[in-house]
Design brief:
The structure is a homodimer. The first copy, chain A, is mostly helical. The first copy, chain A, folds into two domains: about 80 residues, Orthogonal Bundle (Arc Repressor Mutant, subunit A); about 80 residues. Chain A contains eight helices and three strands. A three-stranded antiparallel sheet of chain A has the order 1-3-2. In chain A, strand 2 and strand 3 form a beta hairpin. Chain A is elongated and about 70 Å long. The N and C termini of chain A lie far apart (about 70 Å). Chain A binds a DNA duplex through helix 4.
Amino acid sequence: MDRTTGIFVDGMGAAAATSGILNQLQGRIFALLYLQPGPLSLDEIATELEQSKSNISVNIRGLVDWHLVRRSRVGGSRRDQYEAAADFWRVMQEIMERRFRWNVRQVLATIDETERAVEEERGRRDWVQFVTTRVAGLRAFFAAMDAGFGAFAHGKPLDPAALKHPLLAAVPRPRPRG
Amino acid sequence: MDRTTGIFVDGMGAAAATSGILNQLQGRIFALLYLQPGPLSLDEIATELEQSKSNISVNIRGLVDWHLVRRSRVGGSRRDQYEAAADFWRVMQEIMERRFRWNVRQVLATIDETERAVEEERGRRDWVQFVTTRVAGLRAFFAAMDAGFGAFAHGKPLDPAALKHPLLAAVPRPRPRG
DNA sequence: CAGTACGTTCAGAATATTCTAAACGCTCTG
DNA sequence: CAGAGCGTTTAGAATATTCTGAACGTACTG
């Protein structure tokens, strides 16, 4: 591997490792493919990155899932070819929906469960009141995030105003009088 | 711990574990504190979550760093008290700046290095040309992300348009005639 | 100023993740 | 239809992360 590619591969690997989306090896695989004029096979990638073929196989699947890499099969050959995709907006949409929004919904689901549980608590009326209020505050914020991320992934601007005061934003405004 | 808190703690722990920001224990600590009417000490948290005090000590520091938990010391006591913060927008700003944007800048720094390296490559003129173009495409996208995240953290809307066609957005538009 | 009540650090144990090499199964080929 | 050339699965090795308990430092307390 030439010096330029080495620097790019190392740097992108390090960035990926702290991304919370890809691991280091996935960052390296993508970086390698991104600087190639043509597609590479599994074996070529494994050799270049000094990793086992099985490890590349497993990790490249994640890259294909995020639409960061395209898999193709040329002619009648049964050898897969891989190349980097360059539609980063598409990747970001995917991450928004399948990672961030999915995570937000985990929280919303937990809030649902918690609200159901607190309704069954016997006695301790003001504690129940307190928990209900707190959980409502969390729900307002995460509901706003869910809506905001959803809109963003569909190409609409994400306005932080809804996150600053989610409780206010969640409540329908009184109509201004004529 | 009562049933309601248990459900909330477990759910938030699971969500945190896949967040890429907090680990499971940090999610559990925050959840426990969030349903408490008053602050708790390190030892109380450790007992409730069945973890060693040292482990709580280390992990709660991260929560304080993200402004998810406030540390206070009441009166002349030397016992720290912790309570959940509820300004989630502040937390999001912190994450935007110190996590996402920092990560984006890692990529931009790698691109800088790569461009410097490719300039020193001898021969292979069309390969150099190819790499330069590709890296420019990546830079345009990540520069747009950096700008967008920065604006968002300062309360301005984040418009996906700049990410859809970053190369176009980066170039100043020709003035319309007339 | 010795004793106690804390928070933190650290070495090593427990656990989870990443990686390899061998085994497997599929598909094309002669 | 046997063999070669693939990608994938899997058991276990290598490595990284998380967790504990003991040791330590500091600041109140009697």
